[in-house]
Design a protein that fits this description.
The structure holds 2 protein chains of 2 kinds. Helices cover about 20% and strands about 40% of the residues of chain A. Chain A has helices spanning about 100-105, 120-130, 135-145, 160-165, 170-185, 285-290, and strands spanning about 1-25, 35-45, 50-55, 60-65, 70-80, 150, 170, 190-195, 215-220, 230-235, 240, 245-255, 260-265, 270-285. In chain A, β3 and β4 form a beta hairpin. Chain B has 24 helices and 14 strands. Chain B starts with a helix and ends in a 7-residue tail after the last helix. Classes of the chains: A alpha+beta, B alpha/beta. At the A-B interface, β1, β3 and β13 of A face α5 and β7 of B.
Chain lengths: ~290, ~650
Amino acid sequence: MHFAIRFLTEYLYDAPVTDNLNALRVRPATTTSQRCDEFTVRIDPEARVGRHSDYFGTEVLEFGIVRPHTRLSIDARARVVTADQPDPPEAPWSGAETETYAEAAGEYLLPLADDPLSDTLDELVDAVRAESPLATLEGLCELIPERYAYRTGVTYVGSTVEEFLEAGAGVCQDYVHLGLIMLRRNGIAARYVSGYLWAAPEDGGDDSVEVETHAWLEALLPSENGRGEPMWVAADPTNRQLAGERHVKIGHGRHYADVPPIRGVYQGRAASKLDASVHMTRLNPQASARA
Amino acid sequence: MSDVEIARAQDAYRPAKGFYDELFDDDGTPRPHAVALAAALAALGHEQLAAAGRRRDTIFVQQGITFDAAGEDGPTLERPFPLDLVPRILPASQWTHIKRGIAQRIRALNRFVDDVYHAREIVRAGIVPWRLVVSRSHFARAAHGIRPPGGVYCHVAGCDLVRDYDGSWKVLEDNVRTPSGISYVLENRVAMTRLVPALFADYRVRPVDHYPQLLLAALRAVAPTAEGEATVVVWTPGPLNSAYFEHAFLARQMGVELVEASDLVVRDDVVYMRTTHGLQRVHAVYRRLDDDFIDPLEFRADSVLGVPGLMRAYRAGTVALANAVGTGVADDKAIYHWVPDMIRFYLGEEPLLDNVRTYLMSDREAMEEALQRMDELVFKPTGESGGKGVFIGPATDPVELAGLADVIRRSPEKWIASVVACVARAREGATTVRDVISAEMWEAINTTYLRLRDGDLSRPVLSGPILLYQHVKERSALFWGLTARTMLRDEASAFLYAGGRIEAGDMVLRMLRVALPADDANSPDDGHAIALLQAVGGLQAYRRAVPAPAHAGPVARFLLFERNYPDSVAAAVDAVNGALRTADAQPRGSEPILRLSRLSADLEFRRSAEGDADLGVTCREVQRELGFVDADIAQRYFGGARAA
């Protein structure tokens, strides 16, 4: 599928701020399932934008605005082509216990410092385990939305998994953090993915109903015959399915904090108001090629 | 053994079995290199050695060479650094061996850090598992792909050595993040040469006091600019850090600025330091903060000790950080196990110094064996430093409850307590600027503080605190005298002076407002007026300057307007003005200087105005203006920081 994506963010400060430094992770990645054809970003007030790839391979855009200002606007546009991910491999659990798997898994199998201890969690970890890693992954995409309602305003970007479990409801980020723990504790390496999701509107139009960046996960599944390389398979627990061509990936990490869309610091005693939105439009392939 | 214990036990001293004794061999004769030392110790005798120990403690406390620790008497206090006056002698041949072994080790660790953040060759070769590296708490993903100037990561390293029972040296642990303690080495050497020179007399001892020059040369060598032009700074988290003394000490010895995060700013990927002349580029930073705190944009977002954008400048290669970001992956206790392999892999050499035999608890077999012998082993958590969390099997007793309780000093009268509190705050303030004040100034404040802290204040409270106040007054005068004589006349002294004069002016105004009768300034009741003059020490000056008797009105005018009396308000205003003009490169644009000039003119106007009726109003208004001046100074020169 072809998409035009516009990521628009505006900050309003109630008093002038200076030395406003920001790092953006908003550019769609180029992977085996996706290609970013065009990408521009405009900052107002104008600023020179530096780019580099971080440790996880995500493209980071950095800029700084020195002089006093009360408004910052970030306007990023991209054109992306996506394809469905290849069929996930069917393999038994033994495939996840080999040296090859452990090497490919690396840090994505490791528990994070703030992983909670909880009976609920233990129970979920046991409940999700199915007859194979793939079946577990698919089951997880059903189990989490079954147990936990999708509701905004209950959790926030800094909420822990513990808080989410207690609250009983949350958003995509919480689903993913929980899913990561459930997979890792079952010996399946998993990583957090940040990106955009095109959600088809009811009337069948081309504009997405999704208006924010989205979170899903990738699980490392052992190869079918146990001899090939394990494969990262994307799954979206919020939408109860494996990910596909409607998912546009920005980057991945161990958790949200490794791929935040925006991270910034400024000088000044002002409070800021944030207005962020994502417009995603499906394009006709011919139109997209000509544009 | 400590020097006091040796002094007492010298006649009965026998080397312990199973340990390598530094001075004596197994049958009690001094080792060849220690013969002269043993003789000198015997000649010195118990008494002198013990006395030297007491002098050492006094000097260290006076000079602030202390560290915070809990002692036998209970709670955590500043203790004098425990320097043992009996030295450990390393003959040149032994030292050469140690030096080569450590240099080899540091070179290997440096290569390891570079490898881990780039090609990961040692992982590909199957020697160190990647999962181990990436799970270290100090593995810094932000350092991935960055190569610092000169390819140097471990500019400063501290290796802990231990002497094994057979006399060989082994490395106990490496410290390559922000190793601390060199200032003690330097101060200890100075103390030794002064306290027990007799022990040195027969030895040619290599000096250590050139360390600051070595450090400075190293920082300049890696600075990304022509060598003569490099601006180097020491970056401290601030005076609350327990090693602050060392940060200030090194900055002073190297002749470079000591900065905190608020003094630094990154613009366009370049690091600058704020000065009264504007921004000055910084090329090399000797930083004494852990990675986690250095940049809220890349590491801990809640760190107010960090400089936003520092990693950008670092990535762009415009600034050298010593030590480099991410070195902690190499001094992790679990990685320690592989250092001999690193030496073989990167250098193709055999290690000159061995590790201590280590059991990794992540290895099940090793863990079982270790748990069988817990009372013979030392257990350490892998990610810590400085002995935190270490559990020493053979030395662990059941917990002893506190011994003597510390004497709790109660201040029975509020005003005595506030004098003590003021002096304590002055000392805190002096601590933060130790890098720019003279040692004499520091000691003047410190000994005043110590005398108040440790002295018995109950008698002055009961019998009248005059003597105590007298003492504090005299010490204050001493401090200012020392300032005038020993402090370099630079910006720092200008601001110190300005601050002192603002306080003096404010103090006189407060006292005037209290002492001036509300209704009739010409009242013949002069009791208060004379007391006021005596309080500021201006009675004689008044008598020489003013023909009128010491009534409230003339005294008030004298203290307000008489520029020839140094503690008058007008003189204070002029003094602050003069001090700021010295410090400020652009006085015409300076709000506090403009305000002070206006205030000075206003005072002159009021002086020549008729009548004393509105002196009370004058005092209030002038005091308010001085308050604004103080705020202006903070705004213009200190980034708006409020005084504590």
